[in-house]
């Protein structure tokens, strides 16, 4: 068996879900000459037409036709749809094709495909990139570069399938990190999902107050913008992620509320030394963010 | 009485506190040829030497000498030191000099100078700019441009003093907005101070978890970075701000914790519709952040 395409430039790629992530991946493949023809599938006819008009894909097709023609099938639909979609695509895939996803959650997905006869054709990938925008219009050049791409259960994917995925992300400048699905979902709750929850809550806090005070945003500067930016994110993306990562998220959210209440008590008691100590500990985040 | 310098280019400026804000203001004055000589005062000899070495100021002087020589005195020390310092400087100022501050809090400050015989020589200013860094090394070119500068109690400052401040900020590209001191402090709590509290708390949340799980930061991407960036900020700047804006801050912090708890309950109950509705409301922040 020859396995997946060794020369990517002639490869036909099917992108299922031509929104922010799928669209940006299509653009990246094109920019790096990593694909021949790029086909698209989308549940929204409007998004499909827009993806086509923007040149993200060469043709929009039906899922069945796309699977039949593609060397690589990329699943980039909302996180809660992926387990079922991955099974549905693997049902129709051959031993020459590779199927990968780009979703934010891995435990349910990997469990769903675990017993599939074509499990080895699937590679579970989460490139750590995104913006607060969504849809084909949000697709960007240069996405994924310099960001990590997590691969889960690498050992359960065929070597040629892993090689194809590795070659693509190497070309995009995205280092690959291996991680177990459960560890991935727990870590993602801490470094991505909680940031969205706090941004949504902060936006609601200020918007609530704005009803009383019209001029409150005259002052909105850079700090506010950076902490609230994620609150522009789409509910259709984030509701499924939060609910399908519920246990991990409730764990981190509980800890976050405890930390906020600790700071509130220190402010109430004018505990300058306690606050300074907490801030100096928080400053250690410099170790991680450069 | 001729009043404050009408031709700024020959003006001698004293910057009290040559850190991030005072240092960046010195740089901006220099870049726009708005000052002749720039003098500096700093409680830290080390910071003074660094400001001098970086060319932020022409000379470091004692406060008394600086006041005696300056046409414009700029107060850029931590927020809690400003009420006393402003009185101390006004005690020595003449009717030809202008004193302005750049602090994040205005109610206490304006109350402290309210009855001063030289009140009209003082202009209370808060340029809505800052970064998470501090000290003379953090001073930046191009600071303040495109950001609002709030002026409080404009009517209590002499017209020539206001004109000088307006001319400077117009040259820096910073539009001036008038606001009462109490309104300023309330609004600042909503659009600046709370963002810092949530960032500090979020950093503590993740750092707490990191003790158990070493690899948690492998995944840290753009969203995390933007919500946690402010947690690098200096305790020496932020403890005084939080404690001296306690009432407003506890109000907004209480509302923020309520919003987080509301989202936590919706996640616990798998309330997808409630979460989607909350996120769509939060999306309205787009009206404010473009």
What does this structure look like?
Two copies of one chain form a homodimer. Chain A folds into two domains: 8-179, 3-Layer(aba) Sandwich (Rossmann fold); 184-287, 6-phosphogluconate dehydrogenase C-terminal fold, CATH 1.10.3660.10. The radius of gyration of chain A is 21 Å and the shape is globular. In chain A, 54% of the residues are buried. An eight-stranded mixed beta sheet of chain A has the order 3-2-1-4-5-6-7-8, sandwiched between helices. By secondary structure, the first copy, chain A, is α/β, with parallel strands linked by helices. Helix content of chain A is 49%, strand content 11%. Chain A has eleven helices and eight strands. Chains A and B meet through helix 7, helix 8, helix 9, helix 10 and helix 11 of A and helix 7, helix 8, helix 9, helix 10 and helix 11 of B.
- Tell me the Rg of chain A in angstroms: 21 Å
Q: Number of DSSP helices of chain A? A: 11
Q: How many beta-strand elements of chain A?
A: 8
What is the CATH architecture annotation of the largest domain in chain A?
A: 3-Layer(aba) Sandwich
Order of helices and strands of chain A: EHEHEHEHEHEEHEHHHHH
- N-C termini distance of chain A: 46 Å
Q: What proportion of the residues of chain A is helical, as a percent range? A: 40-55%
Structural class of chain A: alpha/beta
CATH level 1 class label of the largest domain in chain A: Alpha Beta
- Please identify the oligomeric state: homodimer
């Amino acid at each position: 068996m020859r396995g997946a395409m060794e020369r990517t430039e002639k490869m036909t790629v099917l992108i299922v879900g031509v929104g922010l992530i799928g669209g940006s991946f299509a653009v990246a493949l094109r920019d790096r000459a990593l694909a021949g023809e790029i086909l698209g599938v989308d549940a929204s006819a409007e998004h499909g037409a827009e993806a086509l008009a923007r040149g993200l894909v060469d043709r929009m097709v039906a899922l069945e036709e796309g699977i039949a023609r593609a060397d690589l099938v990329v699943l980039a639909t909302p996180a809660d749809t992926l387990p079922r979609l991955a099974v549905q695509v693997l049902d129709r895939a051959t031993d020459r094709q590779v199927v990968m996803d780009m979703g934010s959650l891995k435990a349910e997905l990997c469990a769903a495909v675990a017993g599939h006869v074509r499990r080895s054709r699937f590679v579970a990938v989460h490139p750590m990139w995104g913006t607060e925008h969504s849809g084909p219009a949000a697709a960007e050049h240069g996405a994924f570069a310099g960001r990590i791409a997590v691969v889960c259960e690498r050992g359960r994917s065929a070597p040629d399938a892993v090689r194809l995925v590795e070659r693509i992300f190497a070309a995009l400048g995205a280092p690959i990190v291996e991680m177990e699905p459960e560890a991935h979902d727990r870590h993602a709750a801490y470094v991505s999902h909680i940031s969205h929850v706090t941004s949504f809550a902060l936006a609601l806090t200020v918007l609530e107050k704005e009803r009383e005070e019209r001029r409150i945003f005259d002052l909105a500067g850079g700090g506010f913008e950076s902490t609230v930016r994620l609150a522009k994110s789409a509910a259709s993306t984030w509701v499924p992620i939060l609910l399908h990562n519920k246990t991990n998220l409730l764990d981190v959210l509980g800890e976050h509320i405890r930390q906020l209440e600790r700071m509130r008590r220190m402010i109430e008691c004018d505990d300058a030394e306690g606050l300074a100590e907490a801030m100096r500990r928080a400053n250690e985040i410099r170790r991680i963010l450069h």
